[in-house]
Amino acid sequence: MNLLRTLLCATLLAACGLPAWAAVGRDEAAAVAQRETGGRVLAVERSDAGGRAVWRVKVVTPSGEVRVVLVDATTGQTR
Fold first, then answer.
1. Which pTM was predicted?
2. Which residue from 62, 64, 67, 76 lies 20 to 30 Å from 14 (Cα-Cα)?
3. Where does the secretion signal sit in this chain (predicted)?
């Protein structure tokens, strides 16, 4: 019982250290934007769009166009 309680407490403490808003991490958001555009990721930053947490991913496409892709931090869907 003591071991179970210790493991439960450790799990809860570890979960508390994660950002609550980011079910999708920075690297995953970069990969989503890269797949969507076929480009190279230049920058990734946290942002907010319409009251929702998003990753703002700046990419340069194979044709040289710079695009910003918004990736929902909860679902991983692009906007």
1. 0.72
2. 76
3. 1-22
